[in-house]
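Researcher: I'd like a candidate sequence for this fold, 237 residues long. If you have to choose between options at a position, lean toward the conservative one.
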């Protein structure tokens, strides 16, 4: 199976910069399945202009359907633009916008109703890791964030302390968590069969070895997805 490479642009790029970046991407998708999560402001524009590419959302509102929620974008509205996937529960949302597992659970339900497959981020904070209870922390994130009715999702393991820091866990550490999610009896049936990707300072240098880890079938890339030369190295894995 080709690796799944998810570019999370976060709140970066103007529309012109995004167009310029995409025009430099290689045409062929022989080496990887690519998804790009651009800012919502121009997601629809990019989708129309580059219909062969899979543009996805970085988040959806906790509110569902339609309503008087100025500034919000529900899963239903996002799906109406042809979007099929959304990142949910990224640690930047958990930390900066106080999202809890229960918030994310509601968002997963909104995605399910709208026909969007959620990409659910889990991963321990440095504090949880230091307390040595991080394995239970991650399993709890999975159990609490993903409702039982959810039949399909992608899970992204993103240790918070590795995001944007240039520090990555060792391959053994990633492997330990991959096994925890995919094999441990305290994990869920959905998590065991879901596609698992790794995120946190993944780059052109380390992508190849991370993708060789058992159970890891893709990468969620932040900073390295903003630099075309670096990103091309990742796509050529
Ligand atoms: P990073 O971000 O690659 O810059 O560490 C990953 C992410 O936030 O998903």
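Model: Candidate sequence:
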């Amino acid at each position: 199976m080709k690796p799944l490479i998810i570019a999370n642009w976060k709140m970066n790029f103007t529309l012109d910069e995004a167009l310029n970046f995409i025009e430099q991407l290689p045409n062929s998708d022989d080496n990887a399945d690519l998804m790009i999560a651009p800012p919502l402001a121009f997601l629809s524009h990019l989708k129309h202009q580059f219909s062969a590419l899979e543009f996805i959302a970085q988040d959806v509102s906790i509110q569902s359907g339609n309503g008087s929620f100025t500034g919000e974008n529900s899963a239903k509205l996002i799906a109406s633009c042809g979007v099929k996937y959304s990142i949910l529960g990224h640690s930047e949302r958990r930390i900066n916008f106080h999202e809890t597992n229960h918030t994310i659970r509601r968002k997963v339900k909104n995605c399910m109703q709208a026909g969007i497959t959620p990409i659910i981020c889990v991963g321990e904070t440095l504090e949880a890791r230091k307390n040595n209870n991080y394995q239970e922390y991650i399993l709890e994130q999975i159990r609490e964030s993903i409702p039982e009715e959810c039949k399909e999702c992608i899970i992204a393991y993103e240790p918070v302390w590795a995001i944007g820091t240039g520090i990555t866990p060792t391959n053994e550490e990633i492997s330990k968590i991959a096994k925890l999610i995919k094999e441990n009896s305290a994990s869920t049936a959905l998590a065991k069969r879901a596609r698992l990707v790794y995120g946190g300072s993944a780059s052109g240098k380390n992508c190849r070895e991370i993708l060789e880890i058992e159970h890891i079938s893709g990468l969620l890339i932040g900073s390295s997805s903003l630099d075309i030369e670096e990103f091309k190295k990742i796509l050529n894995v």
